[in-house]
Structure to design on (165 residues):
């Protein structure tokens, strides 16, 4: 029983199911990091929350009265910063706990990791947009589809291309 935790935490010793579960846990944590960074920036340095935003209503975050164009630019900047911070976190956690690193030099591995994340985000966002535009899918449901597509896309490319399994 004493070697169960090291086996679960080690990327080299975990079986495929444990690896997939760990990947999911890291993904959820990375999503929380991205969301937290976004909302901290959106409520402070890059104020982009309107008065009717759920985060203002239910979390008590600060709203700003600026044009939609300014709000949209600030939103994009806050989202981009959150994406980068979350992906650095995700890369470090995947290296430490999910996959075996060493297939590439760390800087190339990191570049590929970020590139795959960006590609997955673009593909998943495109699919979500098509589902909304062509089939009238509710935006919230399209977000769930986007998360699922991005999760699987990232998992397979990271497992079989970036890391050593």
């Amino acid at each position: 029983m004493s070697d169960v935790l090291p086996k679960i935490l080690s990327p080299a010793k975990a079986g495929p199911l444990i690896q997939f579960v760990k990947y999911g846990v890291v993904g959820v944590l990375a999503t929380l990091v991205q969301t937290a960074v976004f909302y901290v920036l959106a409520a402070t340095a890059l104020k982009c929350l309107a008065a009717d935003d759920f985060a203002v209503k239910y979390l008590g975050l600060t709203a700003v009265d600026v044009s939609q164009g300014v709000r949209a630019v600030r939103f994009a900047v806050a989202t981009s910063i959150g994406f980068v911070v979350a992906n650095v976190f995700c890369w470090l956690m995947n290296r430490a706990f999910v996959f075996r690193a060493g297939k590439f030099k760390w800087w190339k591995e990191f570049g590929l990791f970020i590139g795959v994340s960006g590609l997955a985000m673009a593909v998943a966002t495109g699919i979500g947009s098509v589902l909304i535009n062509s089939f009238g899918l509710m935006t919230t449901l399209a977000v769930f589809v986007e998360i699922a597509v991005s999760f699987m896309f990232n998992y397979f490319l990271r497992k079989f291309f970036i890391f050593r399994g």
Observations:
- Residues 15-98 form one domain.
- The first helix runs from residue 4 to 9.
- Residues 117 and 154 are 6 Å apart (CA to CA).
